[in-house]
TrEMBL record:
Lineage: Eukaryota, Metazoa, Chordata, Craniata, Vertebrata
Assigned GO CC terms: cytoplasm
Family the entry assigns: Belongs to the PRAME family. LRRC14 subfamily.
Name under which the protein is recorded: Leucine-rich repeat-containing protein 14B
Keywords on record: Leucine-rich repeat, Repeat
Listed Gene3D superfamilies: Ribonuclease Inhibitor
Organism: Daphoenositta chrysoptera (varied sittella)
């Protein structure tokens, strides 16, 4: 698929394709052409030209999302290209913007916004080397620290110290880059580049370090907070977090697995849960909430009813919800606004079929993403599911891996899915008839890959043929057995793997010590 380019864009490409000539000629370029030249340079991966464009940026703001997004001159959106060459050139260009004392342009830049970059699985850049969110956090922090050291040592123009640029970024902090980021945040006041954290993700971090760094980020600006995987945050810590820090602009909150466990609740815990609900109620911008793998049986209402703004995204996968929880969700004011819903890990047909379909009907006019993995949806439930999904005409993504459906039922379902006009992505299970007879669901990890691969390929081809015959080549259908792509996990999997091995070793040592004492 080729995207039309205007004559202006073609001329810009020709100009930047000769890097040496372009760099020499920048002084004679009109200010309003810089955005055009930047996108052309990014498309052609002209790192040196990108660096010089940023170093001499003549405008008040630099917004990566807008610069790379669809424009009249070139409709293609390049914001999902996290090309390492381009992004490193961008950030070093920003550092040199501060240091460059001979720039022909008056220094006007006030805001440098990196938040519009999207991390995706498939990269189209020629270098094939990406710079993910963690690496961007690392590089910006490093450049800020280096810049300060240089300014303190060198004889700089006094005007350099008057430069103040807010650098908007989505930070991603783990144990490995923690110290570097802390140093950059601590010295924010004296550095011309001011890190402004709009979204914060922490993984593989001790609670003490998490609490320290979250205060340094200026939580009053935070719109998205993700505390995931190896941050051992439990309910009492969450209450302390919400009591000691205010998040007035927070729109999206992700909590780690096992934050809540109502099975061991005391009267004090019930009060704590109410306090957390009230504190979330004070976050008037909060519209996205993810609490997967917590045990929340019978407590959804207590947690969500204080919210004053309806949720647009709710992930309560594997949260052991009961009928009362589902009834609350179906009848709550959130139901009519849910654009993304994840109820994976609940036996929907057995526990609350009618209540679930009531919830589905309430959110059908706005629902875009629906995830029902490991929900015990069988062949006998497919007609009912089709009936429930029929009004969901805005549905773009449907994931239902791990359900015991046969290839025949999947074909029936796919024939219906072709009728959903906005659908773009489907994640479907390996058909039940591809597994050995007697397989039990949910399938354990050891048995997950023990299916007839040839038969699966044949069925997958037939399902794609159904899409093809309905002129729905725009729909991507796949079976990611071990979960969907997660850019953040992908980028830091070596560190997380090492952490898990270390944790396992420590647990084993403790067990051995205890066993020896008993002996």
């Amino acid at each position: 698929r080729t995207t039309m380019k205007s004559l202006r864009f073609i001329s810009a490409e020709a100009f930047v394709s000769n890097a040496e000539f372009a760099r020499k000629s920048l002084g004679a370029v009109a200010h309003d052409l810089f955005p055009l030249l930047f996108k052309a340079s990014y498309l052609l991966e002209q790192g040196e030209v990108i660096h010089d464009l940023v170093e001499n940026w003549p405008l008040f703001d630099f917004n990566m999302g807008k610069l790379l997004g669809a424009t009249l001159d070139y409709q293609e959106d390049l914001s999902h290209r996290t090309c390492s060459v381009c992004l490193e050139s961008c950030l070093t260009g920003l550092r040199d913007y501060v240091l460059n004392q001979s720039s022909p342009y008056m220094k006007k830049l006030k805001v440098f916004d990196l938040t519009g970059i999207k991390d995706v699985e498939v990269q189209f850049c020629k270098c094939k080397k990406t710079m993910g969110r963690w690496a961007r956090t690392q590089l910006l922090s490093k450049l800020c620290s280096e810049l300060l050291v240089y300014l303190q040592q060198a004889q700089c123009n006094p005007g350099t110290f008057e430069i103040s640029i807010n650098v908007l970024i989505d930070l991603f902090v783990t144990e490995r880059n923690y110290e570097l980021v802390v140093q950059a945040l601590l010295k924010k006041c004296s550095c011309p580049l001011k890190i402004c954290c709009v979204a914060f993700r922490s993984d593989n971090l001790t609670l003490q370090k998490f609490f320290y760094i979250i205060k340094l980020t200026d939580p009053s600006l935070l719109r998205k907070l993700e505390i995931v995987h190896n941050v051992h945050l439990e309910m009492e810590h969450l209450e302390i977090l919400f009591s000691s820090i205010h998040f007035p602009l927070l729109m999206s909150l992700t909590l780690p697995a096992r934050t809540f466990n109502v099975r061991r609740f005391t009267a004090t815990d019930e009060q704590m849960l109410s306090n957390i609900g009230e504190k979330m109620g004070e976050m008037t911008q909060l519209t996205e909430l993810s609490m997967s793998f917590s045990i929340l049986t019978g407590r959804i209402q207590k947690l969500l009813s204080p919210l004053k703004t309806p949720l647009k995204m709710l992930d309560v996968s594997n949260c052991s919800l009961n009928h009362a929880d589902m009834a609350y969700l179906a009848n709550s004011f959130h139901a009519n606004h849910l654009e993304a819903l994840d109820l994976s890990g609940h036996d929907i047909p057995e526990l609350y079929p009618s209540t679930f379909f009531k919830l589905l009907s309430h959110c059908s006019s706005v629902l875009r993403n629906l995830t029902l993995e490991d929900c015990n949806i069988q062949d006998t439930h497919v007609n009912m599911l089709i009936l429930g999904l029929s009004p969901c005409q805005k549905l773009q993504e449907f994931k239902f891996i791990g359900n015991p459906l046969t290839s025949q039922a999947l074909k029936h379902l796919f024939t219906f899915l072709c009728e959903l006009p906005m659908l773009k992505n489907v994640e479907f299970p390996v058909p039940r008839d591809c597994y050995p007879i007697g397989i039990t669901y949910p399938i354990d990890d050891a048995s997950l890959c023990r299916y007839d691969h040839q038969k699966y390929e044949r069925v997958a081809e037939e399902l794609n043929l159904i899409l093809l015959q309905a002129n729905r080549e725009d729909v991507k259908a796949s079976t990611p057995l071990f979960g969907s792509y997660d850019a953040a996990v992908q980028e830091t999997n070596n560190e997380l793997g090492a952490y898990l091995i270390k944790s396992f070793k420590e647990t084993l040592e403790k067990f051995t010590t205890s066993f020896n004492k008993m002996s």
